[in-house]
Amino acid sequence: MRQLTQKLKDGTMQILDVAVPSLKKGHILAKNYYSLISAGTEGSTVKAARKGYIGKAKERPQQVKQVMDTLMEKGLVQTYRAVMKKLDAHSPLGYSCVGQVIDVADDVREFKAGDFAACGGLTASHAEVVCVPTNLCVKLDPSTDMKQAAYNTLGAIAMQGVRQADLRLGEYCAVNGLGLLGQITCLLLKASGVNVIGIDINESMVEIAA
Is residue 96 predicted with pLDDT exceeding 70? Predict the structure, then answer.
């Protein structure tokens, strides 16, 4: 099958022919219909990968700490080899998609082959076939607009943010950043009766959210 990947070393993006993922316990296999490209999240991932080694280090301080810990534990040579192996690897992109179930694990009861499912998480990638845990999948009615359903993960992220904020009817909330995720957040807040203050350096994005 084909899958969109990025090489962490230099940010090169490639469509590779890879094996269909193995079906795991608690997972479904789904043939992808649509996968969502998130300009914010995936855009920043691509930009970070295209930076030099110093730029990469600034973007990922936690991983730098892990490298230093490995250096102290295993020495320079082994650490260097491990880091270069990681940088040379091809990393899958994507985390929100929709498709049709082609197989389910033996312990899965809520899905069957032929069902339509919206999928999220690290394995809901830009690939022809994805293997996703059932707790990150939602069964869809066949009449569902599949393109819209591909937005499922962003909607879930926005909804979780609104729930965690625990806002009440008539209260005010500022949303800083009106990209796709910010726009969805504004819509959910308005639907909940919250007065929204949208903030973005791009005036056109503010107009869309108004």
Answer: yes
